Each structure stands twice: as structure tokens, then as C-alpha cells.
Amino acid sequence: MEQCSEAFVSFIRSVVSIHDSDLDLVLSRCVNRKVPKGKLILRKGQIANQYFFIAAGGIRFFYEQDGRENTTWISFKNEFFTEISSLNPQRASRFNIETIEDSELVVIDKKDMDFLYAHISAWEEFGRKIWEATAVRMIDQIINFQTLSAEERYMEFMSNPEFLKKIPVKQLAAILGITPNALSRIRKNIK
Known about the structure:
The structure is a single chain. By secondary structure, the chain is an alpha+beta fold. The chain is built from nine helices and six strands; from the N terminus they run ααβββββαβαααααα. A hairpin with a 2-residue loop joins strand 3 and strand 4.
């Protein structure tokens, strides 16, 4: 079993209890992929047809508006993701998804995920738990935008030092909903 798969197996087992035979079936439907930094996994306008687990590295979701890139979501190691607003309704994505560092991804095609959901109850539980956790994270992000100041939102990011080390200032500012200059002022005031 490759190292990438080992990280995925550990992640799966941290979420659900699954029989070895079912786990083998899951892994038979996965592909390990090394993706260099700066590579688009999905382009705006494409229809998402895959799920991803980040065994190493990181990705960002972004869109372009008025000639600027606006980063909306960042994910790093041990996170599961897809462009759900494209995948489930099978409509064109509004986002680009790009690696922000050299990454190792475990990829599952939608048809394979649907098969696994239909045939393995533990996998259906896995999917439910993953998407519930993602929904909570999104709700938290929305609430933070509505209730916290930019400085308070930045302080939330400081609780995860990996984010601060790996996310360029321009992208972090976009996630926080502020300009890079405003972020520089906040960082200066906090030090």
C-alpha cells in the first residue's frame, strides 16, 4: 500500500469503523495522484466529477472578478473535498481549484463514490460525516464574516499556524474579505 493510501486509510478509520474487505473495495476505487504546485484541478466552467482527499499539500478554491483572483476556501493535508455545488447538480463550476503547494491527492470518481455509497453502509456514514463537518465549517465561516471584525477573523486563522505559513498574504486577505494592505495593518497591530 502506498504512503498516500496509508494516510487515507488512517483518515477513513478516524471517521468510521469499516471492515477490511469494505476498505479494500474503497481503495480499489481510488487513484493516487501527485500534483505540482500551481496546477488547476478544476477550471471554472467544467463540471466536477471527482472527490479528493489531500494526503499531502494544499489546495485553494478561487474565482476571478474584475481581473482579480478571490480565494474563498483553502484546504490542507487530511481534508476531503470536491466542488459540491458543481458535482451534485452536475452544472458548470463557478470556481477554479488549484494546488497551492506540491500535493498528493487520492481521487475518487463520482461514479465510484456513488457505487461505494450504495454498497458499503460504513462508507455512506463516512460521506455523511464528512459533508456534515464541511457544512459546519462553512456555516462557521459565514457567521464569522457576519459577526467578527477583520482582526478577529485573522485571530481565528492564527489558531492554525500552518495556514499562516502556507497561505500567501494576498490569498489570506481575500479569504478574510479585506485588502492585503488592511491585512498588513492588522498584522502590525497584533505584533
